[in-house]
Structures are given as C-alpha cells and as structure tokens.
C-alpha cells in the first residue's frame, strides 16, 4: 500500500481489496495521517466524480465540507481565545483527586446492564444523518447487539495453542471523546465476553471531555468498569497516561473506543509479555465496516512501517518473508511500527521507558514515538497473529482538533523526530519541508530520558529493525522528490523499460523518490533514468543502472536548476509529459519545462 500517486498504488489496492485492507490505510484516529494529509494523498479522486458516486459517498463529502468549515472556524477561535491552548499540568495531582471520587466500581454485572435504555437515549433515529456525529454509520452500530457473534478470523492452529497457566491479569484502558454509545458499549462487552474472567482486572474508561458526561458515567454502573473524566480536552496521550496511572493490574492493554475483541484475543498477548516484559504486543487489527458494521478478517501478512514523511502505513511482507512463515504461520511478527490504537504492555515497562510524551497534543505521532522508543531502548514490538481485534476504520476524523489537525500532527511528529532520529531527521525534513517551520516546544525531558535509558542510535533501528526503508546514500548528491512547481517526477508505477511522467507532488516517497548519485545517475531503486537516443525529442526510460553508461549519466546544469545529460546537449523536459512521458530535448534555460529541483540537495 505504499504508493498513492500512480498505477502502482492502484495495483496494490486491487490486490488487497478482497480484504478491504485499503480501509486500513484510511484509519481515522489510531494510525493514519490527519485529514489534510489524506486529502493530498487522495487527490486522484476528482470532486466532479462525486455526482456519480453512491449517495452515502456524496453525503460524506458534504459532511467533510461542513467539517472543514467548522474546523476552520475553530482555528479562528483559537487565535482569539488563547485560553483554548492546551497546557500540560500536573496530571498526578488530578488523578489523585479523581481517584477519590471515581474509584468506586459499579455493582451491575455486564450481562445485566440495560443496554437498550443506554443506547436508546442517544439512538440515531429516522430523519437524522447518522454519519454526522461519528463519521461512521451510527444507525448500523445502534442496530448491532453488543454481544453479537463475529466470525473467528484466526488461523486454525490458534485454536489449539496452549498458554502459560499463570498469566497476569490486565487493566484495559480505553480513552474516548464523543464515541457513539452503542460502539463504546460493544467494545466493553466484547472485552468481558471474549476474555477469561480472571484475566480482566478492570476496564478503565477515560472520557476525554466528551460533550455529554453521562455517556461514560452510566457505564460506571458496570462491575469492574471505572470511569474518569477530563475537565478539559487532553488528547489521546495524556488521557492514556491518566488511565495507566490508576490501573491496578501489572499489565496494561490499550484499546480504541470502537473495537470488538474476538475469540481468544487476550491470552496470546499476555503470554508474550509474560515471556519477556519488554515485549510490546498488538493484535492483528480486523476491519469493522464503517457503513454496515460487518466484521471482516484482515490479512496476516502485514507489518507497520513508514516512509520518510513519517506517516504510518502497512507494509505487505515480501515473498521471502511470507515463504519463511509458511511453516510457522502463527509466530509473532516483529514490526517496525505499531498502528498505535491497540496494544498490551507491562505496566512497569511502560513507566520505565517514559509512558508517552506528555507534551504531545490530541492525536498523531505518538505511535511513531513509542515505536522508536521501544525498539531503541531495548524492547521489541510484535504483532501476534492469534490475537484478533476488530476496529472501525474511518475515512476521516470524527472530532475537531484544537489547533487544527495538520499542525498538531506535524508538531507531534517533529518532536518524535527531534528526540529519536539523530541526523536521519534531515530526510524527514527533505520529504516534508514544512516540518522545519513547526514549533515543537521543549524536548529536554525526552532527550534526557533517552540518555538515562542508554537507548540505541536511530541507525541501529534502521539496520536491524527496518532494513526495508531505503536510506538515501551518504554519497548521494541529492535525494527526494524531483520537483517542477507543484508537479513531481513520477515513475507512474512503471518499472524497467518504462517511461516517466509528472504527477502532483505528494512528498510521500514511493514512485516520486529519486536520488542523484555522485556518479551522475538519477536513480529510483535499482533503476536509472536513461536517454533512449542522442537525438532530441525522444522519451527517457527507466533501465537497470550500468556503470559507465553515458546514456544514464546526468549533471546539474544552469546553477543546479536543470538536469542535463553529461555528454550530450540534452536536458530532461516535461513538455510532452501528458502525451508520451518525459523527454530529452535540447537544453534551453528559458524553458520552465526543463527546470527541476530536488527536495534534499547537498549542493
Ligand atoms: Mn481508532
């Protein structure tokens, strides 16, 4: 699912659509870029096509517009009302006060809870737009029982797997902000219903300042359910830490508020943590369809990763990796990154490695930060195939971000990059130049944490955990996107023998990632941009790089603004990009179609 720019991406989607995995990339609040970034990534859907789109898609679009206007309004407000700006305060103090008030567990068994009256009070009724509040079909959720049967999506071998008999119970921490009642309740019921009783110490709900406090309060009547409520919006990271701080069990399990645990989900997670407390483990995240709440099994061949833009993505395992697993299909999968919403971690390890970065706001970047931190500070991240939890993947955020989602995401991500990536952060700045302008606040506490824990350098992480991420060569002269105004050179999904084109820049790497090597190659993976004739007006193509092949050797020309074939008077030109692809024409410094710049240039 790497490339959103051209044919390659669509090939992926076609390949994966059978499992609805494209939805995973659209993740709303646990994994994916906030709406602005996604808007860029999906600019291939021209808005005109909406007139032919199914009704619910058109409606979703109109909602999106309304949402955008609302958010713009909120941003304006924030400018005029600085008291809306969030400040970190003494969370421990708040938690202690709250504990006195809220630490009374309810006395109703979960099976006895009056689901109907709880859900009916906020039920989506005829005539209402049931997408407007949650950005999924609330009516479908309201009509789905909390203890419904879902397909057991595990590998057959999981059903006979044995676990330690002395597993430690867990506290489940669920944070929420304006979650649909039926969805939140189903998350809770599935935890109780699909787990051995003695392994659930409690469920801690952290209400991150939802509009209606009773959404959470009413659930506190259930035995073993505790509810704490923030008195202002704190965001995912600080809310989770509040929940973790009052947790009584030795093991923490974080879930999103729109999940559904499947058969036997918990024991494989607890067993792995029991084996080594430094393991941080996630289930395979199945898909709950946002329109009809159908539960769909996800592929077991995915790992979490990212490009230099530092946006989470799912990487399909290589054929070699998949081959290796055929004899051990349910072995844990080491993953460079976790999606972030759902994982189990030993409480003392969570505390030892510094919980979360409490200066991160709302959402985004926290999964990147905890992933780097766990790996670099001597832990490990794993996906456990025998653990399956469904999650409602959405196409947009259901809630507004104080400060605007793009800004918050960039700030959080930059904090993670500054603390953990050493000089490799330069590649992030090359991929996302605007990140350099973001105010990222004080990171001194996180830097000293890294020193105290004697964490490994980012280079170790790249070499040992994520060798698949292509690192620009130290010897490269330039790297990144090759830009012409807002268009970028693009392989259009072609491979050896294929032509090149231009496509709107997305700065997400993939088909728009090139390096300019010291030998003069313009390189994409192991392919080099080659002229196909010494006469002007002919297309250039991608071919295997060959040492000394003068048809592949380029130089920066006209003060670095043009790309000229070193031994011929031919320059790379986009004039006929739409008709036949990029061509090599006689160099002409007056032509804008011959101007090219790299996002990261050493010269
Ligand atoms: Mn989520």
TrEMBL record:
Classify the source by domain of life: Eukaryota
Question: Where in the sequence does UniProt note compositional bias of the Basic and acidic residues kind?
Answer: 56-86
Membrane topology is:
Single-pass type II membrane protein
The record's listing under PROSITE patterns reads: RICIN_B_LECTIN
Q: Does the keyword Transmembrane helix apply?
A: yes
Q: Which portions of the sequence form the region Disordered?
A: 48-86
Question: Reaction catalysed?
Answer: L-seryl-[protein] + UDP-N-acetyl-alpha-D-galactosamine = a 3-O-[N-acetyl-alpha-D-galactosaminyl]-L-seryl-[protein] + UDP + H(+); L-threonyl-[protein] + UDP-N-acetyl-alpha-D-galactosamine = a 3-O-[N-acetyl-alpha-D-galactosaminyl]-L-threonyl-[protein] + UDP + H(+)
Any one GO CC term of this protein is: Golgi membrane
Which cofactor does this sequence's record say it needs? Mn(2+)
Q: What is its EC number?
A: 2.4.1.-
> Coiled-coil stretches, from where to where?
none
Q: Name one GO molecular function term.
A: metal ion binding
Q: Where in the cell is it found?
A: Golgi apparatus membrane
Q: Which GO terms describe its biological process?
A: protein O-linked glycosylation
Q: Which family does it belong to?
A: Belongs to the glycosyltransferase 2 family. GalNAc-T subfamily.
Q: What is this protein called?
A: Polypeptide N-acetylgalactosaminyltransferase
Query: Which source organism?
Result: Pinctada imbricata (Atlantic pearl-oyster)
Q: What is the lineage of its organism?
A: Eukaryota, Metazoa, Spiralia, Lophotrochozoa, Mollusca
């Amino acid at each position: 699912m790497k490339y959103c720019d051209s044919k390659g991406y669509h090939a992926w989607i076609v390949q994966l659509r059978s499992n609805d995995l494209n939805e995973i990339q659209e993740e709303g609040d646990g994994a994916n870029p906030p709406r602005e970034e996604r808007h860029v990534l999906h600019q291939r859907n021209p808005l005109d096509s909406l007139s032919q789109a199914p009704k619910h898609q058109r409606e979703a679009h109109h909602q999106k517009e309304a949402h955008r206007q609302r958010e713009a309004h909120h941003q304006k407000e924030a400018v005029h009302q600085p008291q809306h700006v969030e400040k970190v305060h003494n969370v421990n103090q708040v938690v202690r006060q709250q504990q006195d008030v809220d630490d009374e567990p309810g006395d109703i068994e979960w099976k006895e809870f009056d689901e109907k009256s709880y859900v009916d009070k906020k039920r989506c009724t005829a005539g209402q737009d049931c997408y407007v509040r949650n950005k999924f079909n609330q009516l479908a959720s309201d009509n789905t029982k909390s203890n419904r049967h879902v397909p057991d999506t595990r590998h057959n071998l999981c059903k006979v797997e044995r676990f330690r008999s002395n597993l430690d119970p867990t506290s489940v921490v669920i944070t929420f902000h304006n979650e649909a009642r039926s969805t939140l309740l189903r998350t809770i019921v599935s935890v109780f219903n699909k787990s051995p009783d003695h392994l659930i110490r409690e469920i801690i709900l952290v209400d991150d300042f939802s509009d209606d406090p009773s959404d959470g309060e009413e659930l506190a009547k259930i035995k073993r359910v505790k509810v704490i409520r923030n008195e202002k919006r704190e965001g995912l990271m600080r809310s989770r830490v509040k929940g973790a701080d009052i947790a009584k069990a030795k093991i923490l399990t974080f879930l999103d508020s729109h999940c559904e645990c499947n058969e036997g989900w918990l024991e494989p997670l607890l067993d792995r943590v029991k084996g080594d407390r430094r393991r941080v483990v996630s289930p395979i995240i199945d898909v709950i369809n946002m329109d009809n709440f159908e539960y769909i099994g996800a592929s077991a061949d995915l790992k979490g990763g990212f490009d230099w833009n530092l946006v989470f993505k799912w990487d399909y395992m290589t054929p070699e990796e998949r081959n290796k697993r055929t004899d051990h299909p349910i072995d844990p999968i080491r993953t460079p990154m976790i999606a972030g919403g759902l994982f189990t971690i030993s409480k003392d390890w969570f505390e030892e490695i510094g919980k979360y970065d409490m200066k991160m706001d709302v959402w985004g970047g926290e999964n990147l930060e905890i992933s780097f931190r766990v790996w670099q500070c001597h832990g490990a991240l794993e996906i456990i195939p025998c653990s399956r939890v469904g999650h409602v993947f959405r196409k947009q955020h259901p809630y507004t971000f104080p400060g605007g989602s793009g800004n918050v995401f960039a700030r959080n991500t930059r904090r993670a990059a500054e603390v953990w990536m050493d000089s490799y952060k330069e590649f992030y700045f090359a991929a996302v130049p605007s990140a350099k302008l973001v105010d990222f606040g004080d990171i001194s506490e996180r830097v000293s944490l890294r020193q105290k824990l004697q964490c490994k350098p980012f280079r170790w992480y790249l070499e040992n955990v994520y060798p698949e991420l292509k690192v620009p060569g130290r010897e490269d002269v330039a790297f990144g996107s090759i830009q012409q105004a807002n268009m970028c050179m693009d392989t259009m999904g072609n491979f050896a023998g294929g032509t090149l084109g231009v496509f709107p820049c997305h700065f997400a790497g993939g088909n728009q990632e090139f390096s300019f090597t010291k030998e003069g190659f313009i390189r994409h993976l192991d392919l080099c941009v080659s002229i196909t004739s010494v006469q002007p007006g002919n297309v250039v193509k991608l071919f295997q790089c060959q040492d000394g092949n003068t048809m592949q050797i380029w130089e920066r020309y006209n003060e670095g603004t043009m790309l000229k074939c070193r031994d011929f008077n031919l320059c790379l030109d986009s004039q006929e990009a739409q008709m036949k692809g990029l061509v090599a024409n006689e160099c002409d410094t007056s032509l804008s179609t011959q101007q090219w710049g790299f996002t990261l240039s050493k010269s």
